[in-house]
Automatic annotation (TrEMBL):
Name this protein carries in UniProt: Extracellular ABC-type sugar-binding protein
Signal peptide: 1-25
Family: Belongs to the bacterial solute-binding protein 1 family.
UniProt keyword DNA repair, yes or no: no
Length: 448
């Protein structure tokens, strides 16, 4: 699930200092516009001039340290153009955005993680079409597979921004080395390792799905990742579009297979309690026990690197790193589940279009990447600007043309299901409800 009620990235001091120095060269930050608007530092922003003193509001679910990085990532743009960006991040974004939009109080721009929600607003006539410059840049810089997720009835409304790879299992390389454990490359090896760790007295897995109004989303990611591995991409696509029912036998099989880990008290929930503690454990905290020896593995996306305490070395030879969530059926290849957010606009004033265009540019994505722990599917991202080993691995996966990539399924579904009954159903399932009635309930909720 791409619900970024979760802060995603770590604060990287060197990158921030570098950007701060660059911004200082371009202006003081107290002025609306730099005195050096025509300088070499501001040359990349010449195309956005003419909007000095204008204000653009952006609303998203990105908060805390990640919100600080977000605002720093466009600081030079605002210094050089004089456009003020008023950013607001909220943990209730998914619930509050429709309320604001339907109530006539929409932001100028929103970063929407769910293509299903983009479609909802587009169908209601709430979104503005992209300006010509934004559309041209998006089509030039973004893979076609990503653009289709922001397209509704043939019209591109949402430009992909950040991205993440979800098919990862976090672990401690240091602990694995000390214990003599090998990183598994198949599902059979993963289960064998889980059994071995459980027999040693340590819980092999830890998990948490509590996330405010979005509680339940991490469990939906498990189901999607497993379904891709057991049934394949074609069935996955049929499921997310409701070409097959939500409770198709192949989906039931995937949920039950995920349950062999998630609902197994011998495996769960290191550092927190038993299986039922998963629903009350905040997703931000859920993987931290891998670095304290209370659990060995935590399935979560690349952005989880942000959650480890300051000083944690995230690397293949460090305190924490991640391995690819193993394939189950070799015939289905090595599928990758991922997600991201889409920049949509509810206003089309020139300054709004300028900001939307900038966010699709090479200047922006490399500016943001230099701050650390952030990736995008934008092909103008220079991997040399990506410092984190896990992010380098994620970029390589995203740019691998031979890979089988699929977007987070719950984000593709109608919001009432993907961000509603699916999330809630997974909480009920983890709390002990059987698979069949849970999936039947979600199936019954699909809009007719």
């Amino acid at each position: 699930m791409a619900v970024f009620t979760r802060p995603r990235q770590a604060f990287v001091i060197a990158g921030v200092l570098g950007l701060a120095l660059s911004a200082t060269a371009c202006g003081t930050g107290d002025d609306k516009k730099s005195d050096k608007a025509g300088s070499a530092e501001c040359a990349p922003y010449e195309k956005y001039q003419g909007n000095d003193g204008k204000k653009v509001s952006i609303y998203a679910s990105i908060r805390d340290a990640e919100a600080d990085l977000l605002e720093r990532s466009w600081s030079q743009f605002t210094e050089c153009t004089g456009i003020e960006i008023a950013y607001e991040g909220s943990g209730e974004f998914e619930a509050q955005l429709p309320v604001r939009v339907d109530g006539g109080n929409a932001p100028d721009i929103a970063f929407v993680p769910q293509p299903g929600l983009v479609k909802r607003f587009a169908d209601a006539g709430k979104l503005k079409q992209l300006g010509a410059d934004t559309k041209a840049l998006a089509e030039q810089n973004m893979p076609a597979d990503w653009l289709k997720y922001g397209t509704v009835n043939g019209t591109l409304y949402g430009v992909p921004l950040g991205a993440n790879v979800k098919s990862f299992v976090w672990y401690s390389p240091k602990t694995f080395k000390e214990k003599g454990w090998e990183v598994p490359t198949t599902w059979e090896q993963l289960i064998a390792l889980s059994d071995k760790i459980a027999a040693s007295g340590m819980k092999p897995w830890c998990a948490g799905v509590e996330s405010g109004d979005a509680t339940g989303w991490p469990a939906t990611d498990w189901i999607e990742d497993v379904l891709l591995r057991t049934a394949g991409a074609e069935v996955y696509d049929q499921w997310t579009t409701h070409a097959i029912p939500f409770n198709d036998p192949r989906v039931v099989d995937a949920v039950d297979r995920a349950g062999t880990i998630l609902k197994n008290d011998k495996y769960m929930n290191g550092g927190f309690g038993g299986v039922k503690s998963i629903t009350t454990t905040a997703f931000q905290e859920a993987g931290l026990p891998v670095t304290t020896g209370k659990c060995a593995m935590h399935r979560q996306a690349s952005f989880y690197a942000n959650q480890f305490p300051e000083g944690t070395k995230v690397a293949a030879d460090g305190d924490a790193f991640a391995f690819y969530f193993p394939a189950i059926d070799a015939a289905k290849g090595k599928p990758v589940l991922g997600a991201g957010e889409f920049v949509v606009a509810y206003a089309d004033r020139p300054e709004v279009q300028a900001v939307q265009t900038y966010l699709a540019s090479a200047e922006y994505v490399n500016s943001r990447a230099k701050l650390g722990n952030w990736v995008t599917a934008n092909n103008k991202l220079d991997i040399a600007n990506v410092a984190s080993p896990i992010d380098k691995l994620s970029v390589q996966i995203l740019q691998d043309k031979t890979g089988v990539f699929r977007f987070d399924g719950s984000d593709l579904m109608p919001a009432a299901v993907g961000a509603g009954t699916f999330w809630k159903g997974m909480v009920e399932w983890l709390n002990g409800k059987a698979t069949a009635p849970v999936l039947q309930g979600i199936e019954s909720s699909w809009p007719k």
